[in-house]
Amino acid sequence: MIPLQLVTIALVGLGGLAVVTSRDPLRQTIVAGLYGLVLVVLFVVLQAPDVALSELVASTVAFPFIVLAALAKLRDRRRE
Amino acid sequence: MTLLPYLLAAWLFLVGLYGVVTSRHLVHLVICLSVMQSATYVLLLAIGYRSGKKAPIFTAGVPVKVGAVDPVVQALTLTDVVVSVTGVALLLALVVEIWKRAGTVDPDRLRRKEL
Amino acid sequence: MSRNVRLGLFAAAGAMLAALLVWGFTGLPAFGDFQGEYGWILNDVAGHERHVTNVVASVVFDYRGFDTLGEEFILFAAAIGVALLLREARDDRERPRDEVRSDAVRAVGLMLVGPTVVVGLYLVAHGYLTPGGGFQGGVAVAAGVVLLYAAGRYRAYSAASPHGLVELAEGAGAGAYAAVGVAALFAGGLFLENVVELGTRGTLASGGTIPILNAAAGLEVTAAVVLLLHEFLEEVMYPA
Fold first, then answer.
1. ipTM for the complex?
2. For C167-206, what is each residue's pLDDT tens digit?
3. A54 → closest Cβ in B15, B53, B81
4. What does residue C65 show for φ and ψ, rounded to 5 degrees?
């Protein structure tokens, strides 16, 4: 195992924990986006560029957009 | 040491499960579920990795003889990453629907009669 | 069930699951030492058997193309499910609100639309040569369309993603994938067998049915993601 893999494995482990322990969903969305980016780096160092691209487009664009839209909807109702 | 990437997968799965069990907000729960799912990606890619080998892409100038990491696990994972987003979307649509009917997204406060 | 009981249950079950996982993992090949024959063989033969340079794409759209058919239909079903759930109780009488007020956001958003779509199309088109493909590129193209919304032009965005057309594209993408499989039957092969001329390795005209299935997947993913994002956006735009 090369050091870079060791570092990213540690970062992904911490990232997963950070996502779960962020209790405010809005903040959690941002943390989840960062976690996705760390996963992208892990996939790259595991020599899986196809999967890294997949994770990149999914976790930085589609995933946060959908979650934020859902959260906006929930907030919208609360105001009325 | 050679077990470490697999342990990462177990860690992500359990941490995500902890989040699901203790969640007080359904959106939070869905995101924790996606952390659990990422454990499967890490596990599959970790199994398919071969020390010192490159990605299975043999563009001009890369001789086939050098070998590469396993392409099958990567093929399994890359489609699932995209499909999982639509799964999350479906779950969140259900959350929005629950919110409309029950007026809460705290799983502890949901009552059967409100749904 | 009270919170403490649930936590206790999780602690016990989680500990057992952790032990089971660790026990199972010790039986796996050591990290970096996987010797699965399937992968070795595919890496060796995909180049001259299918004339592609990206072996992963040949697995997705050819060797394990049948699995991908399943994935496509999951995608299709999930997108339809979201549409069914969210579309049901929407009040269409209210006018959509244009909420983006910042000029900087508008400018950057508009600037990024073109490049994002081009990058997405590039990823789809070169999927079987370099990393990328219909799945990754499809999401990127969809992101470009949605950036039109981020640029604060809800109407431009609506015009760029006409409902009927997106739905049609979604069905066509999933249908085309299956149709290519059935066409192989008529050509005398097996379902989803690669029966088309394989072309020159390393060029866009290579891989036989792989580019066709790749394009079908790209269409399907683009349409599904645009549809999903659209439904959620509409949900926000039209307060219930």
1. 0.91
2. 899 999 999 999 999 999 998 888 988 888 888 888 888 8
3. B81
4. -60, -30
Helix (H, G, I), strand (E, B) or coil at B89: helix
Q: Which domain holds residue A9?
A: 3-79
Nearest chain A Cα distance for residue C94, angstroms: 15
What is the full DSSP assignment across C133-181?
-HHHHHHHHHHHHHHHHHTT-HHHHHHHS-HHHHHHHHHHHHHHHHHHH
Q: What is the pLDDT of residues C72-81, one digit of tens each?
A: 999 999 999 9
Helix axes A63-79 and C210-237, enclosed angle (nearest 10): 20
Of B79, C113, C77, B90, nearest in space to A66 by CA: B90
CATH tag, B4-114: 1.10.287.3510
At B14 the pLDDT is 96
User: What domain count does chain A have?
Assistant: 1
Give the domain ranges of chain B.
4-114
pTM equals 0.91
The pair of structure tokens assigned to C29 is: 């090949």
Residues 80-109 of B with CB under 8 A from A: 81-82, 84-85, 88-89, 92-93, 95-96, 99-100, 103, 105
**CA trace torsion C222, A63, C231, C115 (10° rounding):** -50
